[in-house]
Protein backbone atom coordinates (compact mmCIF):
# COMPACT_ATOMS: atom_id res chain seq x y z
CA UNK A 1 0.00 0.00 0.00
CA UNK A 2 1.44 3.33 -1.11
CA UNK A 3 0.67 7.03 -1.26
CA UNK A 4 0.04 8.08 -4.87
CA UNK A 5 0.17 11.69 -6.06
CA UNK A 6 -3.05 12.81 -7.78
CA UNK A 7 -1.05 15.26 -9.85
CA UNK A 8 2.05 13.45 -11.14
CA UNK A 9 1.39 9.82 -10.19
CA UNK A 10 4.58 9.36 -8.13
CA UNK A 11 4.28 6.93 -5.27
CA UNK A 12 5.70 7.11 -1.74
CA UNK A 13 5.89 4.91 1.35
CA UNK A 14 3.12 5.34 3.93
CA UNK A 15 5.71 6.42 6.51
CA UNK A 16 6.55 9.56 4.47
CA UNK A 17 6.65 12.42 6.97
CA UNK A 18 5.20 15.05 4.63
CA UNK A 19 1.65 14.30 3.44
CA UNK A 20 1.99 15.94 0.03
CA UNK A 21 4.07 15.23 -3.05
CA UNK A 22 7.25 17.03 -4.07
CA UNK A 23 5.20 18.57 -6.90
CA UNK A 24 2.73 19.93 -4.31
CA UNK A 25 -0.01 17.45 -5.25
CA UNK A 26 -2.26 15.70 -2.75
CA UNK A 27 -2.08 11.95 -2.25
CA UNK A 28 -4.58 9.20 -2.82
CA UNK A 29 -4.07 5.84 -1.23
CA UNK A 30 -3.15 3.08 -3.65
CA UNK A 31 -5.75 0.76 -2.15
CA UNK A 32 -8.93 -0.72 -3.63
CA UNK A 33 -10.96 -3.18 -1.55
CA UNK A 34 -12.04 -6.28 -3.46
CA UNK A 35 -14.65 -7.67 -1.08
CA UNK A 36 -16.96 -6.62 1.72
CA UNK A 37 -17.21 -9.25 4.40
CA UNK A 38 -19.16 -7.77 7.28
CA UNK A 39 -18.38 -9.22 10.70
CA UNK A 40 -21.87 -9.60 12.21
CA UNK A 41 -20.46 -9.90 15.74
CA UNK A 42 -18.62 -6.58 15.62
CA UNK A 43 -20.83 -3.57 16.36
CA UNK A 44 -18.29 -0.92 15.44
CA UNK A 45 -17.06 0.27 12.04
CA UNK A 46 -14.36 -2.40 12.28
CA UNK A 47 -17.14 -4.75 11.14
CA UNK A 48 -16.16 -3.54 7.64
CA UNK A 49 -12.57 -4.65 8.24
CA UNK A 50 -12.12 -6.01 4.71
CA UNK A 51 -12.41 -2.56 3.17
CA UNK A 52 -10.07 -0.88 5.64
CA UNK A 53 -6.42 -0.42 4.62
CA UNK A 54 -4.99 -1.56 7.98
CA UNK A 55 -4.42 -4.80 9.84
CA UNK A 56 -3.53 -3.10 13.13
CA UNK A 57 -6.55 -1.85 15.08
CA UNK A 58 -6.18 1.09 17.45
CA UNK A 59 -9.71 1.38 18.81
CA UNK A 60 -11.51 3.22 21.59
CA UNK A 61 -14.74 1.33 20.93
CA UNK A 62 -16.36 3.22 18.05
CA UNK A 63 -20.10 2.53 18.03
CA UNK A 64 -22.20 2.42 14.87
CA UNK A 65 -23.70 5.89 15.19
CA UNK A 66 -27.51 6.01 15.25
CA UNK A 67 -29.65 7.47 12.49
CA UNK A 68 -32.76 9.07 13.93
CA UNK A 69 -35.72 10.97 12.44
CA UNK A 70 -35.82 14.74 12.75
CA UNK A 71 -38.62 17.07 11.68
CA UNK A 72 -37.39 20.34 10.20
CA UNK A 73 -40.03 22.75 8.87
CA UNK A 74 -42.51 19.95 8.21
CA UNK A 75 -39.92 17.84 6.42
CA UNK A 76 -38.87 14.49 7.82
CA UNK A 77 -35.12 14.02 7.56
CA UNK A 78 -32.70 11.53 9.08
CA UNK A 79 -29.90 12.70 11.34
CA UNK A 80 -26.72 10.65 11.75
CA UNK A 81 -25.41 11.32 15.24
CA UNK A 82 -21.68 11.39 14.70
CA UNK A 83 -21.15 13.26 17.96
CA UNK A 84 -21.69 9.97 19.80
CA UNK A 85 -18.27 8.65 18.79
CA UNK A 86 -15.63 8.26 21.57
CA UNK A 87 -14.20 11.81 21.63
CA UNK A 88 -17.41 13.46 20.50
CA UNK A 89 -16.96 13.90 16.75
CA UNK A 90 -16.82 12.09 13.42
CA UNK A 91 -13.07 12.74 13.40
CA UNK A 92 -12.62 9.55 15.45
CA UNK A 93 -13.20 7.54 12.28
CA UNK A 94 -10.24 9.10 10.50
CA UNK A 95 -8.08 9.19 13.61
CA UNK A 96 -8.58 5.47 14.29
CA UNK A 97 -7.47 4.48 10.78
CA UNK A 98 -4.63 7.00 10.48
CA UNK A 99 -3.19 6.17 13.91
CA UNK A 100 -3.56 2.43 13.24
CA UNK A 101 -1.66 2.82 9.96
CA UNK A 102 1.05 4.88 11.62
CA UNK A 103 1.60 2.28 14.30
CA UNK A 104 1.68 -0.43 11.64
CA UNK A 105 4.35 1.57 9.78
CA UNK A 106 6.52 2.10 12.85
CA UNK A 107 5.73 5.80 13.29
CA UNK A 108 5.87 6.58 17.02
CA UNK A 109 5.51 10.37 16.99
CA UNK A 110 3.44 12.83 14.94
CA UNK A 111 2.07 16.35 14.78
CA UNK A 112 -1.36 17.60 13.74
CA UNK A 113 -3.20 20.91 13.48
CA UNK A 114 -6.89 21.37 14.15
CA UNK A 115 -9.58 23.73 15.32
CA UNK A 116 -10.27 21.25 18.08
CA UNK A 117 -12.21 18.10 17.16
CA UNK A 118 -9.50 16.48 15.05
CA UNK A 119 -6.95 17.40 17.72
CA UNK A 120 -9.07 15.77 20.41
CA UNK A 121 -9.49 12.66 18.27
CA UNK A 122 -5.86 12.33 17.14
CA UNK A 123 -4.47 12.91 20.63
CA UNK A 124 -6.86 10.37 22.18
CA UNK A 125 -5.97 7.68 19.63
CA UNK A 126 -2.29 8.50 20.04
CA UNK A 127 -2.68 7.95 23.78
CA UNK A 128 -4.43 4.66 23.11
CA UNK A 129 -1.60 3.60 20.79
CA UNK A 130 1.15 4.76 23.16
CA UNK A 131 2.39 7.31 20.64
CA UNK A 132 3.62 10.83 21.28
CA UNK A 133 1.97 13.74 19.51
CA UNK A 134 2.20 17.49 19.20
CA UNK A 135 -1.02 19.37 18.52
CA UNK A 136 -1.27 22.87 17.04
CA UNK A 137 -4.59 24.62 17.83
CA UNK A 138 -5.92 28.15 17.45
CA UNK A 139 -5.70 29.81 20.88
CA UNK A 140 -9.39 30.68 20.37
CA UNK A 141 -10.49 27.03 20.08
CA UNK A 142 -13.18 25.82 22.48
CA UNK A 143 -11.54 25.36 25.89
CA UNK A 144 -13.07 21.92 26.35
CA UNK A 145 -11.48 20.68 23.12
CA UNK A 146 -8.09 21.94 24.30
CA UNK A 147 -8.61 20.30 27.70
CA UNK A 148 -9.35 17.02 25.90
CA UNK A 149 -6.01 17.32 24.10
CA UNK A 150 -4.11 18.19 27.27
CA UNK A 151 -5.63 15.35 29.26
CA UNK A 152 -4.52 12.83 26.68
CA UNK A 153 -0.92 13.86 27.34
CA UNK A 154 -0.25 15.54 24.00
CA UNK A 155 2.04 18.53 23.73
CA UNK A 156 -0.16 21.46 22.76
CA UNK A 157 0.86 24.59 20.88
CA UNK A 158 -1.72 27.40 21.11
CA UNK A 159 -1.39 29.63 18.06
CA UNK A 160 -2.74 33.19 18.10
CA UNK A 161 -4.68 34.37 15.05
CA UNK A 162 -6.76 32.55 12.48
CA UNK A 163 -7.14 28.84 11.76
CA UNK A 164 -4.85 29.38 8.76
CA UNK A 165 -2.09 30.72 11.01
CA UNK A 166 -2.28 27.49 12.98
CA UNK A 167 -1.78 25.53 9.76
CA UNK A 168 1.13 27.79 8.80
CA UNK A 169 2.78 27.12 12.18
CA UNK A 170 2.64 23.34 11.76
CA UNK A 171 3.70 23.46 8.12
CA UNK A 172 6.82 25.40 9.08
CA UNK A 173 7.93 22.20 10.83
CA UNK A 174 7.01 19.85 7.97
CA UNK A 175 9.65 17.19 7.49
CA UNK A 176 10.79 17.22 11.13
CA UNK A 177 8.24 14.71 12.35
CA UNK A 178 5.31 12.85 10.74
CA UNK A 179 2.58 15.36 9.86
CA UNK A 180 -0.64 13.41 10.41
CA UNK A 181 -2.88 16.05 8.84
CA UNK A 182 -6.57 15.16 8.73
CA UNK A 183 -6.94 17.53 5.78
CA UNK A 184 -3.98 16.24 3.75
CA UNK A 185 -3.61 12.58 4.59
CA UNK A 186 -5.65 10.14 2.45
CA UNK A 187 -5.72 7.54 5.24
CA UNK A 188 -8.02 9.87 7.16
CA UNK A 189 -10.61 9.59 4.37
CA UNK A 190 -10.37 5.80 4.52
CA UNK A 191 -11.61 6.24 8.10
CA UNK A 192 -14.39 8.70 7.37
CA UNK A 193 -15.56 6.52 4.46
CA UNK A 194 -16.88 4.07 7.07
CA UNK A 195 -19.77 6.50 7.56
CA UNK A 196 -20.91 5.59 4.03
CA UNK A 197 -20.83 1.86 4.81
CA UNK A 198 -22.86 2.43 7.97
CA UNK A 199 -25.44 4.60 6.18
CA UNK A 200 -25.78 1.95 3.46
CA UNK A 201 -26.24 -0.90 5.91
CA UNK A 202 -28.55 1.10 8.22
CA UNK A 203 -30.64 2.10 5.17
CA UNK A 204 -30.90 -1.54 4.05
CA UNK A 205 -28.69 -0.73 1.05
CA UNK A 206 -31.12 1.86 -0.36
CA UNK A 207 -29.24 5.12 0.00
CA UNK A 208 -30.75 8.50 0.85
CA UNK A 209 -31.24 10.82 -2.14
CA UNK A 210 -29.46 13.74 -0.45
CA UNK A 211 -26.84 14.11 2.26
CA UNK A 212 -25.97 17.47 3.87
CA UNK A 213 -22.83 17.97 5.93
CA UNK A 214 -20.93 20.88 7.50
CA UNK A 215 -17.91 21.31 5.26
CA UNK A 216 -14.50 22.75 6.05
CA UNK A 217 -11.64 20.56 4.85
CA UNK A 218 -14.22 18.16 3.41
CA UNK A 219 -13.45 15.01 5.40
CA UNK A 220 -17.13 14.07 5.71
CA UNK A 221 -18.18 14.49 2.07
CA UNK A 222 -14.91 13.22 0.57
CA UNK A 223 -15.06 10.20 2.86
CA UNK A 224 -18.71 9.57 1.95
CA UNK A 225 -17.92 9.88 -1.76
CA UNK A 226 -15.03 7.43 -1.40
CA UNK A 227 -17.17 4.95 0.56
CA UNK A 228 -20.18 5.14 -1.77
CA UNK A 229 -17.89 4.78 -4.80
CA UNK A 230 -16.36 1.64 -3.27
CA UNK A 231 -19.83 0.27 -2.46
CA UNK A 232 -20.86 0.68 -6.10
CA UNK A 233 -17.67 -1.05 -7.29
CA UNK A 234 -18.35 -3.84 -4.81
CA UNK A 235 -21.85 -4.22 -6.28
CA UNK A 236 -23.62 -3.44 -3.00
CA UNK A 237 -25.36 -0.22 -4.11
CA UNK A 238 -26.18 1.36 -7.44
CA UNK A 239 -26.59 5.05 -6.71
CA UNK A 240 -24.58 7.96 -5.37
CA UNK A 241 -26.53 10.28 -3.06
CA UNK A 242 -26.37 13.98 -3.95
CA UNK A 243 -23.78 15.43 -1.59
CA UNK A 244 -24.40 18.99 -0.35
CA UNK A 245 -21.69 21.02 1.36
CA UNK A 246 -22.78 23.55 3.96
CA UNK A 247 -20.37 26.37 4.71
CA UNK A 248 -20.48 29.45 6.92
CA UNK A 249 -20.53 32.90 5.31
CA UNK A 250 -17.47 33.58 7.47
CA UNK A 251 -15.41 31.10 5.42
CA UNK A 252 -16.82 29.53 2.28
CA UNK A 253 -13.93 28.65 -0.04
CA UNK A 254 -16.20 26.55 -2.26
CA UNK A 255 -17.92 29.74 -3.44
CA UNK A 256 -15.66 32.64 -2.38
CA UNK A 257 -12.40 33.64 -3.99
CA UNK A 258 -10.36 34.89 -2.31
CA UNK A 259 -11.57 33.94 1.15
CA UNK A 260 -11.27 36.42 4.00
CA UNK A 261 -12.06 34.22 7.02
CA UNK A 262 -14.00 35.86 9.84
CA UNK A 263 -14.79 34.55 13.32
CA UNK A 264 -17.80 32.22 13.38
CA UNK A 265 -19.87 30.05 15.68
CA UNK A 266 -19.06 27.25 13.22
CA UNK A 267 -15.46 27.03 14.40
CA UNK A 268 -15.01 23.52 12.99
CA UNK A 269 -15.33 24.53 9.33
CA UNK A 270 -13.19 27.67 9.05
CA UNK A 271 -10.59 26.20 6.69
CA UNK A 272 -10.00 28.82 4.00
CA UNK A 273 -7.57 26.74 1.90
CA UNK A 274 -8.64 23.09 1.98
CA UNK A 275 -5.88 21.00 0.34
CA UNK A 276 -8.53 18.94 -1.47
CA UNK A 277 -10.63 21.90 -2.64
CA UNK A 278 -10.66 20.93 -6.33
CA UNK A 279 -11.54 17.33 -5.43
CA UNK A 280 -14.31 18.63 -3.18
CA UNK A 281 -15.68 20.75 -6.04
CA UNK A 282 -15.86 17.61 -8.18
CA UNK A 283 -17.83 15.55 -5.66
CA UNK A 284 -20.34 18.03 -4.25
CA UNK A 285 -23.65 18.63 -6.00
CA UNK A 286 -24.33 21.96 -4.33
CA UNK A 287 -22.96 24.40 -1.79
CA UNK A 288 -25.21 26.18 0.69
CA UNK A 289 -23.85 29.16 2.61
CA UNK A 290 -25.41 30.18 5.92
CA UNK A 291 -25.06 33.29 8.09
CA UNK A 292 -24.18 33.61 11.77
CA UNK A 293 -27.77 34.39 12.87
CA UNK A 294 -28.93 31.36 10.89
CA UNK A 295 -26.31 29.12 12.55
CA UNK A 296 -27.37 30.32 16.00
CA UNK A 297 -31.00 29.71 15.12
CA UNK A 298 -30.14 26.20 13.86
CA UNK A 299 -28.17 25.45 17.03
CA UNK A 300 -31.07 26.54 19.21
CA UNK A 301 -33.47 24.48 17.10
CA UNK A 302 -31.39 21.32 17.55
CA UNK A 303 -31.11 21.93 21.28
CA UNK A 304 -34.85 22.48 21.53
CA UNK A 305 -35.32 19.09 19.81
CA UNK A 306 -32.99 17.46 22.36
CA UNK A 307 -29.94 17.08 20.09
CA UNK A 308 -26.73 18.13 21.78
CA UNK A 309 -24.72 18.93 18.65
CA UNK A 310 -22.17 21.73 18.41
CA UNK A 311 -22.92 24.98 16.51
CA UNK A 312 -20.75 23.78 13.58
CA UNK A 313 -23.12 20.84 13.08
CA UNK A 314 -26.15 23.14 13.24
CA UNK A 315 -25.33 24.71 9.85
CA UNK A 316 -27.31 21.90 8.22
CA UNK A 317 -30.59 23.19 9.68
CA UNK A 318 -30.69 26.61 7.93
CA UNK A 319 -29.23 24.92 4.84
CA UNK A 320 -32.23 22.57 4.69
CA UNK A 321 -34.54 25.55 4.92
CA UNK A 322 -32.81 27.20 1.95
CA UNK A 323 -32.92 24.17 -0.32
CA UNK A 324 -35.78 23.16 -2.55
CA UNK A 325 -35.62 19.40 -2.25
CA UNK A 326 -38.79 17.72 -3.57
CA UNK A 327 -40.83 16.30 -0.67
CA UNK A 328 -40.63 12.71 -1.96
CA UNK A 329 -36.81 12.65 -1.92
CA UNK A 330 -35.05 11.41 1.21
CA UNK A 331 -32.55 13.52 3.13
CA UNK A 332 -29.88 12.69 5.69
CA UNK A 333 -27.98 15.31 7.68
CA UNK A 334 -24.71 14.62 9.48
CA UNK A 335 -24.43 16.02 13.00
CA UNK A 336 -20.67 16.00 13.23
CA UNK A 337 -19.63 17.14 16.70
CA UNK A 338 -20.83 17.25 20.30
CA UNK A 339 -22.32 20.30 21.99
CA UNK A 340 -20.74 19.04 25.22
CA UNK A 341 -17.48 20.69 24.27
CA UNK A 342 -18.60 23.83 22.49
CA UNK A 343 -18.44 26.26 25.34
CA UNK A 344 -17.77 29.29 23.21
CA UNK A 345 -20.27 31.60 24.78
CA UNK A 346 -23.32 30.22 23.01
CA UNK A 347 -26.30 29.30 25.10
CA UNK A 348 -29.05 27.10 23.83
CA UNK A 349 -31.97 29.46 24.26
ZN1 LIG B 1 3.27 14.75 -7.52
Question: Could you characterize what this model shows?
Answer:
- The structure is a single chain.
- This protein is α/β, with parallel strands linked by helices and 349 residues long.
- It has two domains: 178 residues, Rossmann fold (3-Layer(aba) Sandwich), CATH 3.40.50; 94 residues, 3-Layer(aba) Sandwich (Rossmann fold), CATH 3.40.50.
- Helix content is 30%, strand content 18%.
- It contains ten helices and 13 strands.
- The chain has a six-stranded mixed sheet, sandwiched between helices.
- Helix 1 runs parallel beside helix 2, helix 5 packs across helix 7 and helix 6 crosses helix 7.
- The longest helix has 15 residues.
- The radius of gyration is 19 Å and the shape is globular.
- The N and C termini lie far apart (50 Å).
- The mean pLDDT is 94.
- Bound molecules: zinc ion.
- Zinc ion binds next to loops.
